[in-house]
């Protein structure tokens, strides 16, 4: 009997499948993945298809992985892929690194790289789908395209051509030439079909931008002169199906701001065009003021000013002037879709000198986007306000839960939280002698991620920080910084730097009081004791750098190759970087010919490049501080990469020396067999688009994967 007792299945492993399914509902994907790593018994959490389908549908329905799983039925792979991507982002441990091209200019949009090579007399635009791990790319002969689109421009030998946008296989470019007067044209085409979708001569190109889906295209310029002397935005719409330009333009007379990505933001999401600004007035106020976001949308099919919906002020509060000044150089602004609910959020980064603090701090703010027509959203769900009541208690509405602070006791104040799904949790939040909060607008803690303090910015100035991003899917901020080594402080050394926060376990709600009985009481009792010492809902930021430092005592030759790709010799000029939720592309250079090296970093474990070389894992290095002990760390992501990348396993290769790489010489316009099916030119004429193997395939030994 003793032998049987010693082999008894422990703890949670005895719970029925149905109970585990109920528990998993209260965990996020990363926690589910961690639970699956605890023992072999729980591997079904990330391997069993029907179980994983329910998880992905509930917690990651609006991700690329979920859309692919709908087609393939491989929901377990989608779940593992999402979890690995989150961990790779938060812990600065990418899966793929490579140089994917040499170019004069580039745009990286929705996972597609559009770059121009002006190797005169040839000028080519090349389009490479990096998210799709394409081995071939579309090549557009720019002079031939121009002659077909604007025939009289063929007489002009000097012109400018740049990519504005690419989505759904549709590319928009700005073409300018002088013969003798300057003309500016917007060219819209589908290279795969060799079809010019639209062309229009522009009255102005000031701050021009383009957004489109498969059915509609809108472009805007900051060109309308207002009666107050300030320039305003104006939008023009186009219906792709029947090549119809909407006759009425939309004049955004109340939208303040002109720097896209910093003070204004535009995007097409679902069937709406969205616009966003973090500015209130055209003129700078010297007196006290309250700032609100200006967010609007209108249906793509009907750009009628009467159909414009505005986000009301009770939802769009941003900040109070009395909070302190802002350094606008560090800020960015965007709209982001929540991967679980699909709800839109405003993401803003601000560097502020907050009242009462001697230094500045970078913080990341999240605000739900709510319009009157969103009937499923209640007022309690979407305000971050705290109001003092007559009896001294407070009523708080924060994000997706409503908290009511009720009375006091000898142990302190107690918060009873009722979530929108009906769950209850009880957490002590303070003591009797803690001063009461006065009536004011406050932010929910989950909607504010405190980032770097001014002491960090002294190490990495704005000129040394080439990329600033925030990924709410894993509560991670990410920078691309110039961090020269101690041994060679004069040379540039680009590194990734990430910081992510994790909720303190003491703030996780009790799951099922009615089911677990005594366990619930014990958890709440333990929580009460711990909370008296620590009331912070989130742990301190965990900072990671990648690649890690080269240790003098243990030299890693391959680590030098990684640094060489990140900082290509001969291409150490200015850096231009772009990113999304799964990858980074930046251009650095150029060399004597003006070409820039395009460096690609991917956090997607499914990312591949043709001919990629498998190498040892290069994981992010945890920065010292916050009580972190490198010797005691188990390197959780190391185990994840080794244990759950079975589909990625392969033999490591030792890479020897490689010759200096240069621009490939293409001598033939003959299309190669590829994923693209190029149709004959629309309306006849000379072919101006074809497919070729991707340029990166000729840059030998410059692309690596770190998947085990």
UniProtKB/TrEMBL annotation:
Origin: domain of life: Eukaryota
Name of the molecule in the record: Uncharacterized protein
Record organism: Hypoxylon rubiginosum
């Amino acid at each position: 009997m003793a032998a049987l007792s010693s082999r008894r299945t422990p703890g949670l492993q005895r719970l029925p499948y149905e109970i585990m399914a109920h528990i998993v509902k209260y965990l996020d994907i990363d926690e589910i993945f961690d639970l699956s790593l605890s023992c072999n018994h729980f591997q079904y959490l990330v391997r069993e298809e029907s179980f994983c389908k329910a998880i992905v549908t509930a917690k990651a329905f609006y991700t690329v992985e979920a859309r692919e799983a709908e087609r393939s039925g491989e929901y377990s792979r989608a779940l593992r892929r999402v979890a690995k991507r989150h961990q790779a982002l938060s812990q600065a441990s990418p899966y793929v690194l490579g140089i994917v091209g040499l170019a004069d200019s580039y745009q990286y949009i929705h996972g597609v790289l559009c770059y121009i090579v002006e190797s005169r007399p040839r000028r080519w635009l090349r389009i490479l789908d990096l998210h799709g791990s394409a081995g071939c790319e579309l090549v557009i002969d720019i002079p031939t395209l121009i002659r077909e689109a604007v025939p009289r421009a063929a007489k002009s030998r000097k012109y400018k051509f740049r990519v504005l946008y690419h989505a759904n296989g549709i590319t928009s470019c700005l073409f300018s030439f002088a013969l003798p007067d300057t003309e500016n044209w917007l060219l819209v085409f589908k290279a795969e079909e060799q079809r010019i979708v639209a062309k229009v001569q522009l009255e102005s190109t000031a701050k021009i931008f383009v957004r489109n889906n498969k059915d509609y295209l809108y472009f805007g310029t900051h060109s309308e002169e207002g009666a107050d002397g300030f320039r305003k935005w104006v939008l023009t719409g186009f219906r792709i199906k029947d090549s119809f330009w909407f006759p009425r333009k939309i004049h955004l007379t109340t939208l303040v701001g002109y720097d896209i990505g910093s003070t204004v933001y535009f995007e097409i999401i679902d069937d709406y065009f969205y616009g966003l600004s973090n500015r209130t007035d055209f003129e700078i106020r010297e007196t006290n003021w309250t700032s609100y976001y200006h967010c609007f949308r209108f249906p793509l099919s009907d750009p009628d000013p009467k159909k414009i919906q505005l986000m009301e002020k009770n939802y769009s509060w941003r900040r109070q002037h009395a909070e302190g000044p802002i350094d606008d150089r560090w800020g960015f602004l965007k709209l982001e879709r929540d991967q679980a609910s699909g709800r839109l959020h405003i993401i803003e980064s601000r560097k502020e000198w907050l009242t009462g603090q001697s230094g500045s701090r970078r913080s990341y703010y999240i605000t739900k986007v709510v319009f009157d027509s969103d009937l499923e959203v209640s007022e309690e769900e979407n305000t971050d306000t705290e109001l003092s009541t007559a009896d001294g208690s407070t009523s708080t509405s924060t994000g997706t839960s409503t908290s009511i602070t009720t009375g006091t006791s000898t142990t302190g104040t107690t918060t009873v939280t009722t979530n929108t799904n009906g769950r209850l949790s009880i957490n002590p939040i303070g003591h009797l002698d803690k001063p009461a909060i006065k009536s004011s607008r406050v932010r929910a803690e989950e909607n504010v991620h405190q980032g770097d303090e001014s002491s960090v910015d002294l190490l990495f100035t704005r000129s040394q920080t080439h990329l600033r991003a925030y990924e709410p899917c894993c509560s991670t901020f990410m920078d691309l910084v110039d961090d020269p080594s101690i041994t060679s402080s004069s040379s540039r050394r680009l590194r990734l730097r990430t910081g992510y926060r994790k909720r303190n376990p003491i703030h996780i709600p009790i799951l099922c009081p009615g089911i677990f009985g005594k366990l619930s009481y014990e958890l709440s009792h333990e929580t009460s004791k711990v909370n008296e010492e620590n009331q912070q809902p989130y742990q301190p930021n965990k900072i990671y750098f990648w690649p890690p430092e080269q240790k003098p005592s243990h030299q890693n030759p391959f680590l030098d190759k990684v640094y060489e790709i990140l900082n290509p010799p001969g291409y150490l000029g200015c850096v231009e970087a772009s990113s999304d939720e799964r990858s980074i592309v930046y251009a650095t250079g150029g060399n004597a010919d003006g070409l820039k090296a395009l460096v690609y970093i991917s956090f997607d474990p499914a990312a591949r490049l043709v001919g990629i070389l498998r190498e040892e894992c290069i994981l992010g290095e945890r920065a010292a501080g916050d009580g972190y002990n490198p010797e005691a760390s188990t390197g959780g992501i190391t185990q994840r990469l080794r244990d759950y990348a079975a589909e990625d396993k392969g033999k490591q290769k030792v890479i020897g020396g490689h010759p200096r790489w240069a621009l490939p010489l293409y001598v033939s316009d003959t299309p190669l067999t590829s994923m693209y099916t190029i149709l004959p030119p629309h309306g006849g004429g000379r072919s101006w688009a074809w497919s070729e193997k991707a340029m990166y395939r000729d840059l030998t030994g410059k692309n690596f994967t770190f998947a085990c």
